[in-house]
Amino acid sequence: MAQYLIVAITFVFILGMIWLRSRLHYVERGGGVLRLQPAGRIYFASALGVLIIGWFVAPAVGRAIWPGAAITPTLMRVVWCLGTYYVYILVHRLLKSRGTMVFRYEEPVP
Q: What is this structure's pTM?
């Protein structure tokens, strides 16, 4: 049971780190309320999807890559989470380079 709790906490932590890192890139761009854009919804939904897929796939990937090693499913799931974080750094850079905004400031209504 503790191993599931470790992975669940790691999932939430990594998703939060992806959120914070992405949001920090838009802090200096303007005033008003910072809102999640439709592309951002897709970005975070896909990150959540990759993390959920990792719950099921990561142990098998670990056994396939290191067949003789005594790798626990928890270790492989945590490594999957870290890999997801780094992949989504690159995805966010790609989105920004193409002009796609994950967050955008909305002007306050007077």
A: 0.85
